[in-house]
Design a protein that fits this description.
Length: 323
């Protein structure tokens, strides 16, 4: 029998579930897992609040209590610390720069259908992991923009080298070129090796998907987040002057090959903003997110911030031609 949880619903915030503070965190989560899953299925995310989780081992136990199958990350766009298989630190990103809305790993061969976040240290100011409903975003984007990306998908270009971005052995977790090529081939990724040992990749992915439970169509990509116009302006200007557009560590295009202008990227981010919900982190919080339905971001922050992340329910990336 599924336990019915008391869920707090406040406009502008994710659904909040209050846990028993006296309980052992992993045991409480395991006991109430089905009920937490039901909240996520209904609302897209559930913030479990009140647990006493104070260290990475406790965070790992909490994540494992709620997970189905944790997955190994490949092709990260920024470094993470690995605590255990499938359990990582949050992405290393400058604290003073926000991380824009995106669905995790939509460019990779596999993405997590769920993400699990556990807060060990909340920042003094900012730093929320905000959420936005991808179905609502899709409904509010201009029809002509949605139709274009629905037909053509989106393309991600990456350059792996020792100067500007993650070297390919770090991103792929191996120094074996043959293994990297096999992974890229399996994921329908085009690649070329540079004379200096760097690696460049290009892949086409769907920009819109259908949620497997609700049947809703969802704006599901990282086309705005990984685009040149979302970079810090000073960083983008420096990179363009020194290395040119082809030298950027990452960039996105419409799947038809056309670059995106600043107005289009700004528009996508504005629609995300209109549908954003957030609540400040508290130590011990566990946030469970439907990664297909909900995009997430990270706001700029001040003070220490420690979030442990689990990538759950690996799902094979679809081909644009298979949709």
């Amino acid at each position: 029998m599924t336990t019915v949880l008391d869920v707090e619903l406040v406009a502008g915030r994710p659904a909040v579930v209050t846990a028993d503070a006296a309980a052992e965190p992993a045991a409480w989560l395991a006991e109430h897992r089905a009920a937490v899953d039901a909240v996520v299925d209904r609302h897209g995310a559930a913030l479990v609040r009140g647990l006493r989780i104070t260290d990475p081992l406790g965070a790992e136990a909490a994540i494992r209590a709620l997970s189905t199958e944790l997955m190994t990350e490949r092709e990260a766009f920024a470094p993470r610390e690995r605590y255990a298989p499938g359990v990582y630190s949050s992405t290393s990103w400058p604290p003073d720069q926000p991380m824009c809305m995106h669905h995790e790993l939509t460019y990779a061969a596999q993405y997590p259908a769920r993400q699990l976040f556990c807060c060990l240290a909340a920042p003094e100011r900012g730093g929320a992991t905000a959420l936005a409903d991808g179905a609502a975003v899709l409904r509010d984007l201009p029809a002509e923009l949605v139709d274009r990306f629905d037909r053509h998908g989106w393309r991600l270009l990456r350059a792996h080298n020792d100067i500007l971005s993650m070297p390919w052995p770090v991103a792929f977790g191996t120094e074996d070129r043959a293994a990297v090529e096999a992974y890229l081939r399996d994921g329908d990724v085009e690649w070329r090796w540079d004379a200096d040992g760097g690696l460049r990749t290009s892949r086409l992915r769907p920009a819109v998907t259908t949620h497997p439970i609700s049947g809703e169509r969802v704006w599901f990509n990282q086309v705005a987040f990984l685009n040149e116009w979302t970079m810090d302006p000073a960083v983008r200007e420096y990179l363009m002057l020194e290395f040119g557009r082809d030298g950027l560590p990452f960039n996105t295009l419409c799947g038809d090959g056309e670059p995106l202008d600043r107005e289009t990227v700004d528009l996508i981010n504005e629609v995300y903003t209109a549908h954003t919900v957030r609540t400040p982190w508290r130590a011990g919080d566990v946030l469970v997110v439907d990664n297909i339905r909900m995009a997430h971001s990270r706001e700029a922050f001040e003070g220490p911030r420690q979030i442990v992340v689990g990538l759950d329910r690996p799902t094979r990336q679809s081909k644009l031609s298979d949709r």
